[in-house]
């Protein structure tokens, strides 16, 4: 469903050389993996990896072939793609193989390429490395493809493409999985028997994660565990399922039996297409054969999505990420101020989150440059909608930073402008609102000219996505420090810096964090409180940032975003509310591209950027009809 493939790595009970016992356990696990579309077992699991010279006994290899016949028979009617590890005899040479089975049929046999013969391993004593080219083998009464260059593709889920490598194949510089991925495999399975020694689990974990990231693939690593011989080694059953560098599931050492996860092959395919110019440019991928099979319907999608994908859930990681982002913002602005030989930085302070963050970044830059804070020209420009709370917080924050405070009441200027253009001041329409925003930008630009400085923009990524800015008003600046920071992350950056500063600065920043998000362009209510609340008008930012992340970063379809949003926010919003704001997101995202086509420079800090010079190139008059029709359908 929506590209999610349910995969399972199983470390079954095992007895060395007891083929019948092992086969029965494997069949039990296959039957018990309800809903799994891909099931992976360990290396040589039918007989055990630690058979030693018993591999030279024809009785053992014949028993393995009979066991695979039994597994084929047991899987009739079961369309899961199953990989089991087995020794396979081919022209009097023994190969360490992964055998792919589905619905009673052997789809292919993949021999191991790299055989370790060092330390505790001596595989070349018994096995032959894989040949370069594919061949055919008569096995279990079937004519079967035999070789490393095999990709298994689900006819009913074309992006569900799988290839296999075996244990040591991953640990070498020239891994078969590199070529598998470049030949089109979105999922790599690894049947492994990696013994456990001190520090090896950490190395193995990093290896699997990085291989899945490097190859932009799902990686299912299935490891042997309890039951293998402990004559010289111990095996912990370290199973892992990764997707593009992220660990989706991992077993506990010496405790795991089975792990499951949902790999998003649609997401992987989209990412490879985005990277196609480099991902598919080098390497020998000739000679691959694609073998089709019919995939079974997966069980319910169990994958969990964070409500705030731009914000790390781990506190330590969040602190580190926050400091890094602030450093990137600081570095970008610092370079621009030095390059232009700017004497001052001019910034409008509204008492809201975005301008607070921008001022904090400017303060960092001036400290690094050794410039006095008084050369930061912080301007408050109260107008028709300014409340006492936001105005006072602006003053307090500017004083805490030590910037030069300048207050310019825009009321008279705007009223005079209304007279010039013949606008009724009692008509609170878009002209009424935007005239204020453009007046403020004019003041900032002229002050920057007067003081030899640059105007620092405060708008954030979420506002750019929704077009929530006045064209040539707050839309414009001379450098935009927040343009790549989404609203859900702005709060954490401000909170982090508030804690760092402490004292009175922390108090005022906390109060700003607790203030309703508003452009304050309409008059306050009768009690003097903010009447114009942004999220009432455009929708909750927590939803819009979620939509933005999956629409732009991963290219998800509208219906897939709706599907995961319904699951993720089921306790916070009803389905109708999510659908309403998702449609609004697409309408605004398409209609407001003309504003993004001419935004000022600003540094990229994360994986999503809407800069027309960098990540996002979109015509200003593109239609949203196709996207909206998918939601209506």
Structural features, described:
- The structure is a single chain.
- This protein has 21 helices and 20 strands.
- The chain is of the alpha/beta class.
- α9 packs parallel to α10 (388-401).
- It is elongated.
Summarize the structure.
With 633 residues, the protein is of the alpha/beta class. 39% of the residues lie in helices and 18% in strands.
User: Which fold does the CATH topology of the largest domain refer to?
Assistant: Rossmann fold
Beta-strand residue fraction? 15-25%
- The number of strands is 20
- Nearest-angstrom radius of gyration? 31 Å
CATH structural architecture of the largest domain: 3-Layer(aba) Sandwich
Task: Give the strand order, joined by hyphens, for the main sheet.
Answer: 13-12-11-10-9-8-15
Largest sheet: 7 strands, mixed
Helical content (DSSP H or I, runs of 4+): 25-40%
Q: What are the salient characteristics of this protein?
A:
2 domains, Rossmann fold, 633 residues, alpha/beta, 6-stranded mixed beta sheet
Layout of strands and helices, then pairs:
Blueprint: E1 4-10, H1 19-31, E2 38-40, H2 58-74, E3 81-90, E4 93-102, E5 105-111, E6 135-139, E7 142-146, E8 150-154, E9 157-166, H3 168-171, H4 176-182, E10 187-192, H5 200-214, E11 218-223, E12 240-243, E13 246-250, E14 258-264, H6 265-274, H7 276-279, E15 289-293, H8 315-339, E16 344-348, H9 353-369, E17 376-380, H10 388-401, E18 404-407, H11 411-421, H12 430-451, E19 453-457, H13 461-466, E20 479-480, H14 487-501, H15 503-513, H16 534-538, H17 541-553, H18 558-568, H19 575-591, H20 593-596, H21 625-632
Helix pairs in contact: 1-2, 8-9, 9-10, 9-14, 10-15, 11-12, 14-15, 17-19, 18-19
């Amino acid at each position: 469903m929506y590209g999610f493939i349910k995969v399972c790595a199983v470390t079954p009970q095992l007895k060395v050389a007891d083929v019948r016992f092992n086969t029965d356990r494997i069949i039990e696990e296959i039957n018990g993996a309800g809903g799994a579309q891909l099931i992976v077992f360990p290396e040589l699991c039918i007989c055990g990896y630690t058979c030693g010279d018993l591999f030279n006994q024809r009785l053992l290899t014949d028993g393995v072939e009979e066991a695979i016949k039994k597994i084929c028979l047991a899987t009739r009617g079961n369309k899961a793609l199953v990989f089991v590890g087995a020794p396979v005899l081919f022209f009097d040479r023994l190969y360490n193989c992964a055998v792919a089975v589905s619905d009673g049929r052997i789809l292919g046999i993949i021999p191991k390429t790299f055989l370790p013969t060092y330390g505790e391993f001596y595989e070349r004593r018994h096995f032959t490395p894989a040949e370069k080219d594919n061949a055919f083998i008569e096995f279990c009464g079937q004519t079967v493809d035999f070789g490393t260059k095999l990709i298994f593709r689900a006819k009913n889920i074309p992006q569900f493409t799988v290839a296999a490598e075996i244990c040591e194949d991953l640990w070498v510089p020239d891994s078969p999985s590199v070529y598998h991925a470049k030949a089109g495999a979105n999922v790599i399975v690894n049947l492994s028997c990696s013994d456990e020694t001190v520090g090896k689990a950490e190395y193995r974990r990093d290896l699997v994660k990085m291989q899945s990231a490097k190859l932009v693939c799902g990686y299912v690593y299935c490891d042997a565990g309890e039951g293998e011989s402990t004559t010289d080694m111990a095996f912990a059953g370290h199973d892992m399922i990764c997707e593009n560098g992220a660990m989706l599931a991992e077993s506990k050492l010496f405790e795991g039996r089975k792990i499951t996860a949902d790999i998003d092959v649609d997401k992987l395919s989209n990412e490879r297409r985005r990277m196609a110019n480099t991902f598919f440019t080098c390497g020998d991928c000739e000679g691959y054969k694609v073998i089709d099979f019919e995939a079974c319907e997966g069980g319910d999608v169990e994958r969990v999505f964070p409500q705030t994908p731009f914000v790390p859930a781990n506190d330590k990681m969040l602190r580190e990420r926050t400091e890094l982002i602030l450093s990137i913002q600081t570095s970008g602005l610092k370079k621009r101020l030095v390059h232009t030989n700017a004497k001052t930085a001019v910034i409008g302070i509204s008492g809201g989150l975005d301008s607070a963050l921008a001022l904090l970044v400017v303060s960092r830059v001036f400290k690094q440059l050794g410039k006095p804070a008084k050369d930061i020209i912080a301007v408050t420009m109260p107008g028709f909608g300014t409340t006492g709370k936001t105005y006072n917080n602006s003053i307090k924050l500017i004083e805490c930073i030590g910037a030069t405070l300048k207050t310019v009441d825009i009321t008279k200027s705007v009223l005079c402008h209304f007279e010039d253009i013949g606008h009724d001041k009692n008509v609170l329409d878009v002209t009424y609102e935007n005239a204020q925003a453009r007046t403020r930008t004019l003041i900032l630009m002229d002050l920057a000219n007067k003081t030899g400085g640059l105007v620092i923009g405060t708008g954030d990524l979420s506002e750019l996505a929704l077009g929530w800015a006045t064209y040539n008003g707050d839309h414009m600046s001379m450098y935009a420090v927040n343009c790549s920071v989404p609203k859900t992350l702005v709060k954490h950056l401000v909170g982090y810096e508030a804690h760092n500063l402490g004292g009175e600065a922390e108090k005022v920043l906390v109060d700003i964090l607790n203030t309703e998000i508003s452009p304050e362009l309409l008059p306050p209510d009768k009690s003097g409180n903010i009447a114009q609340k942004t999220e009432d008008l455009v929708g909750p930012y927590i939803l819009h940032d979620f939509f933005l992340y999956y629409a732009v970063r991963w290219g998800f379809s509208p219906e897939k975003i709706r599907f995961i949003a319904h699951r993720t926010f089921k306790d916070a919003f009803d389905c109708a509310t999510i659908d309403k704001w998702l449609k609004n997101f697409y309408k605004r995202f398409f209609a407001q591209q003309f504003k993004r086509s001419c935004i000022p420079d600003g540094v990229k800090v994360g994986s999503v950027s809407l800069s027309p010079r960098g990540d996002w190139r979109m015509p200003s008059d593109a239609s949203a009809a196709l996207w909206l029709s998918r939601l209506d359908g």
